[in-house]
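U., I forgot to send this yesterday:
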Amino acid sequence: MVGAHAAALPIATGQPIASATKQPQTAIPSIAPDLKQQLERSGIKLDLVLTGFAQGQITGSDDSATINALTNRATGTGTDGSGRFDALLEFDSTRLGLWRGGHINAHVEVEGGGLPGWRGGAFWPVNTAAILPLTEPGQWSLSSLYLRQRWGGTRLMVGKVNVIDLQAQNPFFGGWGLDRFQNLALVLPPTGVTPATLMSGSISQQIGEVTLGAMAFDPNDRTQNSFDRLFEDGLNISLSAQWNGRLWQRSSNLGIAYILSTMKSVSLEETYLPSELRQRGLISPSNLTVNVGHQVWPSSVRPGKGIGVYGRVGLTGGDPNPIQSSLAMGISGEAMWQSRPFDGFGVGVYLYNWTSGLETTLQSALLQEVGLEMYYNLGLTPWLTLTPNLQVIQPASAGAPLLTVLGIRSRIRF
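Result:
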């Protein structure tokens, strides 16, 4: 999908580094590659994606029916289907003859609502694409519209930002639930202090292989109300440092990010937890994230692709953040074989621990939530991909049975 600025993020993220070795080019993943090339040469990148889902619950409870009903999504435990459409636009001010170093990004999306986002009492949605954007099903949303400007190694970004868009170049996390993993804990590991859509401004400076960044954003989700009461409830600040380089002649990265909020409460719904309540505390919520990534086998088929191992650890200051600590890690690969340049796979695991305040807010005993997800992208053509997906989760709710979810995803890129 259309690339995005990722130097100063509220969540530390590693970006892949293309191999310096000259490698063969493959077809553009689009039904109309020639048209996309012509548009890009003129300064317009356009990516249109139509995605369909079928997903069923094999084992587990029906404890997620209430939150799915509140968000007007399917409430059953059987097999359901749905779809969504995403349009990503990027305008290059230099190629358009306007000014040098500027880009304007936009993301328009709509989701059908026929698929449960949450299942089996698990706290994190098993299908990220089924709950985002945070609007009524079938309602179109402009989830991103922001300006990026670059002066040498300095980058500025300001506007409305879909956080997952900032993970576009990440080879493991990110992907919108359309490209790789579907569980939110592996698409965009929640921090407890980062809403889905930000009104934000950020600046970053690259110094050699290290990028230092700072971001300020409204603590409330801005999917539907971009400017109403902007910053009236407080301010979130993110500071980050990211190293992208080579280790053992392979692309590697290491990053750290710290977020602090001045608002002494957290909306559980806006942090994707299945509740409309707010968790309150005596101190400001915070989150510290460390991420690592290393490419163990570079692809000879597509530049920058290959097989890598990745991980992310999160720690918080406790209440009112509902999350105490977290871990997400795994292995993923793309373009492993010359004959299958658009195939890919991923295996990821995650673990979340909760603060005592969340148990008090929900009035329920909680355990760790632990999950495993596996997928395989079968690239039938450069523009058509089928993806079987399996998730096995031990939900956080005490006494909840093991949850098993099986599904298949189809994705068409125009």
